[in-house]
From TrEMBL:
Annotated InterPro entries: Asn/Gln_tRNA_amidoTrase-B-like, YqeY/Aim41, YqeY/Aim41_N
Stored PANTHER family: ALTERED INHERITANCE OF MITOCHONDRIA PROTEIN 41, MITOCHONDRIAL
Organism: Actinocatenispora comari
Domain of life assignment: Bacteria
Cited Pfam families: YqeY (PF09424)
Protein name, entry field: GatB/YqeY
GO MF terms, alphabetically ordered: carbon-nitrogen ligase activity, with glutamine as amido-N-donor
Length: 112
């Protein structure tokens, strides 16, 4: 996906760039460690601040292929639902854009 984002940026494909950036952000968010797991210690300057070399670093979660599929599928479903709402309210241009973004992301879903 990241390679395809670079290609879409070079091609100035706004629909693909938007869809891929959003999906990659969702994946990055899913990899993030929940806040309570971060190592925190007291600092004389800022309460609850991380102190020391590497203290602000936290391991990322490893996502399985099923996790990645679920995230991308959710991104597709979100766009399809939003497109339906836009179409109902007469915003066909926005609905078409969201459907095009969903089509871009469907390429990353494995066949069911």
């Amino acid at each position: 996906m990241r390679r395809d984002l670079t290609t879409a940026l070079k091609a100035r494909d706004r629909v693909a760039v938007s869809a891929l950036r959003s999906a990659l952000a969702a994946i990055d968010n899913a990899e993030a460690v929940p806040a309570p797991d971060a190592r925190m210690s007291s600092s004389e300057h800022v309460a609850g601040a991380a102190v020391g070399v590497g203290s602000a670093e936290a391991a990322r979660r490893e996502l399985t292929p099923d996790d990645l599929h679920a995230i991308v599928a959710a991104e597709v479903a979100e766009r399809v639902d939003a497109a339906t709402g836009y179409a109902r309210s007469g915003r066909q241009d926005a609905a078409d854009r969201l459907r095009a973004e969903a089509d871009v992301l469907r390429r990353y879903l494995r066949p069911e």
